[in-house]
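Study this one:
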Amino acid sequence: MATQIPQTSTSEHASAGFLPRIGRSLAVVPALGWLIGVLCAVIIEYVIGDTLAVMLYLPKVPALFGTTLVLKEPLLFPSALLFVLLVYALPIGAVARMSAGWTNRAAVALERVPIWLSVLVHLGLLYAVLHVWTEASDYRLQVAKLIMIAVMLTLSINVINGYMGEFSCSHPGFMALGAYASSVFTLLLFKQDRLFGAALLPESLGPYFFPIALVIGGAAAALGALVVAIPSFRTRGDYLAIISLAFMFIVKSAIENIEPIGGPRGMGGQPHWSTLPAVFAGMAICIWIINNFVRSTMGKALNAVRDNEIAADAMTVNTRRTKMVAFMFGAFWAGVAGGFYAHEVRHVTPGSFGIQMLAEVLAMVYFGGLNSVVGSIVGAVSISMISEILKPLQLYKWIIIPLILILVMIFRPTGLVAFRDFDIKRILGARR
């Protein structure tokens, strides 16, 4: 009996090969091409977004790519999807693909210049994208800045929980110390305030001293980290987690009982100096310094302590010094993030730095992936966006996010992008 060979239609063959062809054509686009494509998309939205939204019967330009709008009004899903396709997906893909040739040549040219110059070019394009995108609304602007602050916070905790292998729960406490220390500095010197009275210096000088306020916040957090670092010499695992959790509650309770800094009512009226350029620059510097730190000799020592502390000590690694430096370094950047946060929301209370913040930052670092700068960035951006998108669902938001984390822990126990180096040259290089 003759065997019948199943026939496949021409359309099935075409559809089967269409997506791979698109994937292969886009794989040759360098980072420069993608940034230019995204910049063109946000410019298109800025110029014709309002008109297009009216044509598609949308009440306004979708704030976060239509997601929050659809959750509030599901019937607007087709219109929101079409808006995103016309404004973002098609322009980004078309511009990136059409510019692949010359952007690859430009990327090759940038490989011949100092790496810092290439980084500045790409950062300039990324900042331009954020600047144009956030011009649409103050809501977008605040979301973008809070996500960048979350990136700094996630990177700082990954130094301890990822690269050193400890399980620290003290980061909300470090962030609180940084937020309050920087706020005291700026309010005392540059702002008329109910707690400290008249300003000691003209407020116009304040923005120039803002970096000093951030460093003071980071230093306060680093000093607080000594309380956790010293017990870490003798404890690990669950015991250190309990000590670090106790530290967080001690900081929170101490601030609640110090009336000169507002007590449980908190501290408000901070100058709005966490501008988009300032937060963007702070995030870029944080990524650069932490990436260099974890790739340095100290970073290798951290990995040795994580893998086997006894063996690391036998191989002449000063484990006490390594732990001390890691805790203080991670806490410093958490304090800097706290300073940015305080001068963005402009009102901080002890309750802001509790269990909920701890849960969010732990979700970011473990969702993105341990021992990975790229993973920290992915985790912070992903969880922050998901949390913001799901706000219309209110209580159900705190059911969906844990379910997402459970699925990630089942199928990707180490996180989405764990144990991956942040190689600038590879990311920014040409695609041949």
